[in-house]
Amino acid sequence: MSGLAEFVLCVREQSMLQSFLRVKPRAHFLREAREEKLERSYTLFDLLCVGVGGTVGSGIFVLNGLIARDFAGPFTPLCWIIAGAACCLSASSYAELSVLITSSGSSYAYAYSTLGELPAFISAACLSLEYGISGAAVARSWGDKLAIFLVSSNGSTGAGVWGNINVSAGLLQAACCILLLLGVSVGKLTVNFFTVLKMFLVIFIVVAGFCAFDKDILYANSSTALASTSSSSTAISGPSIGFASIMRGATSCFFGFVGYDEVCCMASEARESKSLPRAVFGTIAICSVFYCLAALALVGMQDYQTISRESGFSVAFSSLGEHWQWASTTVAVGELVTLPLVVLVSFLAQPRLQLAMAKDGLLPKAFGEIDSRGNLFKGIAISGLLCSLIALFIPFLYIEDAISAGVLLSFNITNSSLITLRRGQNVYKSKGASYCSQLLALFHVFAILSSCLLTRIGSLDPETSLAQFVLCSVFGGLFIIAALHTSISISATLPNTKATSVAQMTASTTTNYRVAGVPFVPCLGIFVNYYLLAQLSFSGIASLVVYFAFAIMLYLVYGRRNSVLGSAGGELHPPNSMSSSTASTATSDSAVAGGDDEEERTPSEEELTYSKVNENDDEGVEVEMADVSHTASAIDIDSAVVNALHLRTRDK
C-alpha cells in the first residue's frame, strides 16, 4: 500500500501545482471589457492626468524629505534618476500589454492570462499594496503634515497625534471611503482639475526652491557626504552616505511611482490605443523630471541632516527666515489640499480590483456584490475599514518599504507576462513554450541570487573582509553570466516579431504596439528590480514575506477551491457560443504569438474550437480544445484518483 499512497500523493501534488498554473484566456478578459460597455472617452491628456495625478504628489510631498534625510542626502536627485530608468524598463511591458489586454485589472489580468492563477493572485496582492494600502500611507503622511502645520501656525500641542496613533489620518481615509459608499463619482474633469492644481503647486515649489537655492549649501552638503562616504552603510548614521545608501534611496523612490500603472487600468476607456503607451511613458517622464528638480532644490536650501522627513519643503522654506514664511505657508496649505485627492484616487481602484477577483471566484462574493445605487458597498466597506486602521495606527516609515517592494514585484510579474505572451499565449502550451517558462523561472533564480550577492559586496570592506569580498564577487559574477546566458536562451525560443512604434499605430484593433528588445529589456528590468529589492532593510523584507504568506494562505484556503476557472474545469464558455468578436480576438492572439507572419497561417473559424500547437515539433501535432485551461483542474484530478483507487481495491 505504500507504493499506492506515494502514487496518490504524487498525483495530488501535480493536481495542486496544475491548479496554480491554470490560465484565463485572453479572449475572456476582452469580452468582459466589452460587456462593461464603458465609453471610450479618455484622450491622451486625460490619461496623463490620471497617471500624473495619482503619482506625482506622493514623491514630492512625501518622499523627498525622507530620502534626503535618511539615505541619499545631496544625491537624492540621483536616486530619482535611477528609479525612473528602472521604471522605464518595466513600463515598456506595461505599454505593450495595455494595448493587447484592454482590461481594468492591470498586472492581475496580465498574469492571469499568461502565468497562471497563483501568480495572478500574488500580483493582485501587489496591486493592493499599490492602491488601497499606499492610499492609507499617503493619508498617514497627510495626518503628520497636518499636525506639523497646526503646531507651527498656532502652537497647538498633540494635534490629534498620540504616539503612533494619528486620528486625522484615519479620519481622512474613512472620509474617502464614505464618499465612495455614498456613490460619489470621481469624474475625469475632477481628476483633471486637481491634477492641474497640483502641478501648479509643484511648479511653484520648484521655482521658489531654485530662487532660494544656495550653491554654498549644496557644496557643503556634497562635501560633507563625500568626505565621510562609507559603502558599508545603508542608512545615514550622522553624515555617512555611500553607494548602498543611494541605491537604498532609489528603492524607496518607487513609492513615488505608485500610480503610473493606473493608466493601464483605463485601457478599456481610452479613445485611441496609441494613447496608452504615450501616457505610460509620458507619466514616468513628467514625474521623474519634477522629482529630480524638486529634490535638487530641496538639498540646495537646507542642510540635509536637518531636513524634515514629514514636511520637507514647508520646513525648508520656514528655515530661510521670515521673508520666506509666505512660501512655507503656501506649500503647507497646498499639500493639505491636494494630497486627499491622491488618497481618494488610490483607494478608488481597490474595490474594482476586488470586483474582478470576486468574479473569478478568488475572493468571497461579498466583494463583488453591487447595491441598488450601483456601488460595491461591502467591498468598499471592508477594504475601507482595513485601510483606515492602517492609516490610524501604522506610521508611514513602517509601510513605505513594503509598498515599494510590492511595486517592484508587480513590475517583475508584468515583465514575465510579456515574455510568456510573446512565446505564444494560447492556453495550450507546446514543448517549446514549456521550455521557455522553465528558462524564465531559472532566470528569476539567477537574478535573485546575483542581486543578493552584489548587495552583499556593497556592504563589505575589502580590507577587512577580503575572503568574503572575493567569494561574493566570484559567485555574483557567475550568476550574472548564467542569467545572461539564460536570457539568450529565452530569446531563442521566441518567434521573430518586428517592433511597432507608437507612430505606426492606428486606432484599428488589429494593430498592436510591440516594444523592441524582448526578452532582453524585460529581463534587464527584472534584474534591476531584484537588485533594488535587495536593498531593503530586514524588517521591510520580513513584513513583505508575512504579507505574501497571508495572501498565499488566503488563496489556498479560499481562492483555489472557489475559482471559477477551476470549478468549470477550465472551460469558461462553450466553444459554440463564441461570437465573431471573439474570433477577431483569437486572430489577434495568433498574431501576437507568431509575430508578423500572419500570411503564413491565418486562424479560421474552426481554429477557435480546436487549436494546433507546435506545428513544427518533430514529434507530431497536438490538437486541443480552445479556451480550456492548459492543465486539468484539481477537482477533476482528485475525483479521478478516487475512482482509480476504488477500481484498484475492487480488483484486489
**Cα gyration radius (Å):** 26 Å
H and E string? HHHHHHHEEHHHHHHHHHHHHHHHHEEH
Number of separate strands: 4
Chain-averaged pLDDT = 77
Supply the number of helical segments: 24
Show unreliable segments.
7-11, 230-239, 425-431, 506-510, 573-652
Q: What structural category do the secondary elements indicate?
A: mainly alpha
Q: How far is the first residue's CA from the last residue's CA?
A: 12 Å
- Main pleated sheet: 2 strands, antiparallel
CATH superfamily of the domain at 22-427 and 537-562: Amino acid/polyamine transporter I
Q: Can you tell me the CATH class of the domain at 22-427 and 537-562?
A: Mainly Alpha
Strand order of the largest sheet: 1-2
In CATH, the topology of the domain at 22-427 and 537-562 is named: Amino acid/polyamine transporter I
Helix content: 55-70%
Task: Kindly estimate the percentage of residues that lie in beta strands according to DSSP.
Answer: under 5%
Coarse morphology: globular
Task: Describe this protein's structure.
By secondary structure, the chain is an all-alpha fold. The protein has a domain of 432 residues: Up-down Bundle (Amino acid/polyamine transporter I), CATH 1.20.1740. It is built from 24 helices and four strands. Helix 2 packs across helix 23, helix 7 packs across helix 8 and helix 17 runs antiparallel to helix 20. It starts with a helix and ends with a helix. The C terminus is likely disordered.
